[in-house]
Amino acid sequence: MSASMDSPRWEEEERPLDELLAMTDVLDPVAVRDAFGDGALCEANHLFRRIRDLCLAYGYTYSDCQEPLISNYDTMPLAVLSDIVQGKIVPVVCNRKVLEYLSSSNPSLVVRPSFLRRNLRRNYLLHESAHCVAFQTVSHMFDYKANRHQSVMLSLLCESYANAIERLVVLNAKSSLEKWLLSINTYIDPNSYKPMLYRSQALLGLQRALTLGIFVFLKLNRGREWSQDDTWSVVSKVASDDTNTSPVECLALEYFLDRLGEDLNSRFIQLTTPFFFALSRCEKQYSEISTGDGLTEEQFELQIEEAVGHLVSVTCCALSATASIKAMAASVFAYSMDFNASEGRGMPSEARYST
Known about the structure:
The chain is mainly α. It is 60% helix and 3% strand. It has 18 helices and 4 strands. The chain has a two-stranded antiparallel ribbon with strand order 1-4. It has a two-stranded parallel sheet with strand order 2-3.
């Protein structure tokens, strides 16, 4: 008996390749058809579609033939990130054409979806598009052209936004088909996430989850671990600032923060963050940025809070940052961006919740 498309076993069942091509060939004006699964994701996932809409609205295009950008991207994606963001062209891997060739030359070919997940070259249009959206949305808030410290901070904020968006797109997936397509179109393995993480994100809502995600990844991207003490401090602060936060929401918040804090590959951080510093010719460490760019500590904190609030607001289709977004940004910022946070600081016992 064949597994339902909503079953995790779906990926392991052999299916006609032409059937997989047909079910993912969604004609959508914003889709990149040569990127396998892109149209289906634009149609099925509202956050995936929102990032695409924003990217196009900012004047970006998607191309597989813009040289030397494509060749350089194939060789070292991080090296051309600035060219992508400022040149407004997002590189595309035409991975659908090879599947169409296989299907036409082997009409009866059957494959396991898991085989394609492991062997088909991925597209990272979502991740790169999120970088572009973040840059266009908040770059005017940073003196990145004249100040190298501000340039590094902007780069890390855009990276953290892209990290958060990818994970939230996955957590908003509604079917095994959608998760499978995301495994071919993101850096994330959706099957590695437990159902509890999906439920926690749903309970928190997109605005809160995105705000939290950006700040968690900002800390990770500066080479600091996210600890249980970090989680407890944030939950305690949020609970005290918003007395309407229920015990169940606090549990969801705690689980969500803990899982995100474990989810960014340390090797990835060790490669990307120093590269951002090198590209900006910035010799200072992350913790020294706020004192090296002419801003007071309070001005620096306010700059990041406002930038994150604006990013979340634009992403969530609001005209301006709502009070709840600003409050969440301020609550999380107070601890997650504390450069000199002491070890062992935890949430008071009375703020801990049990089921």
